[in-house]
Write a structure and sequence with these properties.
Blueprint lengths: L1 H8 L2 H10 L5 H30 L1 H25 L3 H27 L4 E2 L2 H25 L7 H36 L9 H24 L1 H8 L3 H13 L1 H12 L3 H30 L9 H17 L4 E2 L1 H21 L3
Antiparallel strand pairs: 1-2
Helix pairs in contact: 2-3, 2-8, 3-4, 3-8, 3-11, 4-5, 4-7, 4-8, 4-11, 4-12, 5-10, 5-11, 5-12, 5-13, 5-14, 6-7, 6-12, 6-13, 7-12, 10-14, 11-12, 13-14
């Protein structure tokens, strides 16, 4: 019954597009319907990822989910840059990193760790290390931005080499990691189940991600009116609501997959998505913003840097022994709630 309801609720996506482009519905209505339509899309992306993971192993499956799931995040960020909303972009990027490694991973551990599970410790710790490294690199343009105008052109110029270094670091480590995951999967001798063929799973991932991008753009377009209607700050809205909605694919996919007992894949989705946002998406947005103008300086606030780096260090400590426990998942969700409260208290820049 639940699966039938999810399949049926995929019809909310064309309804959202109809309300936006044909009926020109109000922004608050658009926000509510768009947010609701992302739920079945996230489930579908999670479903396709799990089927793809049967052919590739959890490591590559997690990378595929992160890559398809973060495409809307990149699109949302570029839309926000072009609309002159740099604080929204930086807050949503930082919020995405934090929500993935605290909220998504925490929910995954809580739902999936009914018994003690062994995880791919090396893969997870390397990716968490990438998040810490990215946070340190962000200090180069961020520290000068704490005084004076954080949007000044000189800081956008200064973060260009940082963005290039982020991309090169991510590509190098990811290439090594994918080769390692491919070898481990081959050595495991695991055979794919009677699920979807790999081309089918990848095609569903691509289509679902494309629709998610359109729905996410509608949601961002209506976000400001929704935030004003409920009295939220721009920073909190971007760091919490935009971040969660923009990563709905990873959030829903990891939860569904963890609940089905495939915890290694769920943890790979959460952590690899966080690393991908911190390095690949942030670096790409910083460079591509020169095309859509104005160029985006990576002048993160101290609270954003502390949240990203601190979350990665805490999760690395939790996963250090390579075992997953339900109470650890509850702890990470609680820490995310504390971070969200901190974002609310911090207010706008």
């Amino acid at each position: 019954m639940g699966r039938k309801l999810l399949w049926a609720s995929l019809g909310l996506s064309p309804v959202t597009l109809l309300l936006r482009y044909a009926l020109h519905a109000g922004d608050v209505t658009l926000f509510a319907v768009a947010a609701a339509s992302l739920v079945p899309l996230a489930w579908l992306i999670g479903e396709a990822t799990e089927h793809a993971g049967e052919h590739t192993g959890p490591g590559i499956g997690g990378f595929l989910n992160a890559s398809f799931g973060n495409a809307p995040e990149l699109i949302i960020a570029l839309f926000a840059v072009s609309q002159g909303l740099p604080n929204v972009v930086r807050a949503s990027l930082a919020g995405s990193v934090v929500s993935n490694i605290l909220l998504v991973l925490g929910i995954g551990l809580f739902l999936g760790a009914r018994h003690t599970h062994r995880l791919d410790r090396s893969s997870l710790l390397i990716q968490l290390g990438l998040v810490v490294a990215a946070t340190l690199l962000f200090l180069v343009p961020a520290v000068p931005g704490w005084s004076g105008n954080p949007e000044r052109h000189s800081l956008a110029v200064a973060n260009a080499p940082v963005a290039v270094l982020l991309l090169l670091l991510y590509l190098a480590v990811t290439a090594w990691g994918l080769r390692r995951h491919k070898r481990l999967h081959a050595e495991s001798g695991a055979e794919p189940g009677a699920g979807w063929a790999l081309p089918t799973a990848l095609a569903v991932l691509a289509v679902a991600t494309l629709v998610t991008a359109f729905v996410s753009e509608i949601l961002v377009h209506s976000l400001d009116a929704f935030a004003n209607a409920v009295g939220l700050s721009e920073f909190f809205t971007a760091a919490v609501i935009v971040a969660i909605v923009g990563n709905a694919a990873e959030h829903g996919g990891a939860a569904v997959i963890a609940h089905r007992g495939n915890l290694p894949l769920a943890t790979e989705i959460a952590v690899s998505s966080s690393a991908q946002v911190a390095l690949l998406v942030t670096g790409a947005v910083a460079l591509l913003s020169w095309l859509v103008k104005p160029a985006l300086p990576l002048t993160f606030r101290p609270i954003e840097l502390a949240a990203m780096g601190g979350s990665a260090l805490v999760v690395a400590f939790v996963l250090w022994d390579g075992r997953a426990r339900r109470w650890e998942g509850a702890l990470l969700v609680g820490l995310y709630a504390a971070a969200a409260v901190g974002f609310a208290i911090a207010g706008d820049r």
